[in-house]
Amino acid sequence: MNPTYDFTGQVALVTGASSGMGLATARAFAEAGASVVLADINQAAVTSATDALAGDGHQVLAVRCDVADEDQVAAMVAATVDRFGRLDMAFNNAGIQLPVSDAADEPAEAFDRVTAINLRGVWACMKHELKVMRSQGSGAIVNCSSLGGLVGNPGRAAYHATKHGVLGLTSSAALEYAPRGVRINAVCPGTIATPMVADMLATGELDLEQALANQPINRLGEAEEIAAAVLWLCSPGASFIIGVALPVDGGYTAR
């Protein structure tokens, strides 16, 4: 059973919030009493997800945002403050995967695209969230890295580079902002049962048997398990946790 939190009166922002880990985390924040901004590049999907939460009585706002565009990120954070007056917690989750590629054959366009979303997008989100939290003197940010931020894998050089980069952003900013009352950490999910992973399995890009073998717990993770880690990192229970890269990977990186 997961711990319960009371985030009443607080405001959370989640990117990549229309499905998977983002939606599970947005829902968990809302169920814990927070007002939640759900942001995603897919307007229809994020509006549908937000409408469902609103129908359950939660205070929510849908924002279309391409995190690769800093102007859109700035507008997303501004919309959050305009609607709810503050920003207390953020889960910078938006990201993409690339097809497996030999490092010698990876197109520059693919590298630029995954970097723009997975790394520059996290940088832009954190930058504009911190502007608000700096003035408040409080806040908690969780960036989404990956087990790919902790290890390497053949065929994944560009993707793993972005996820390693997220950890560098996280630890450096965490040291800078801990004295100012803002805690910054990262989660490193393993292979989680999300629409992205389902697509990879369907196309043969990911082998289920191998994925299970790589996680000693012998199953895929659930999006709600990532949400539980994010909420803990944002809660008073993690008040002394600064700059960590928390594996939530069924034991993958414990080998």
From TrEMBL:
Keywords: NAD, Oxidoreductase. Residues 10-190 form the Ketoreductase domain. Pfam families: adh_short_C2 (PF13561). InterPro entries: KR_dom, NAD(P)-bd_dom_sf, SDR_fam. The keyword Isomerase does not apply. Belongs to the short-chain dehydrogenases/reductases (SDR) family. This is SDR family oxidoreductase.
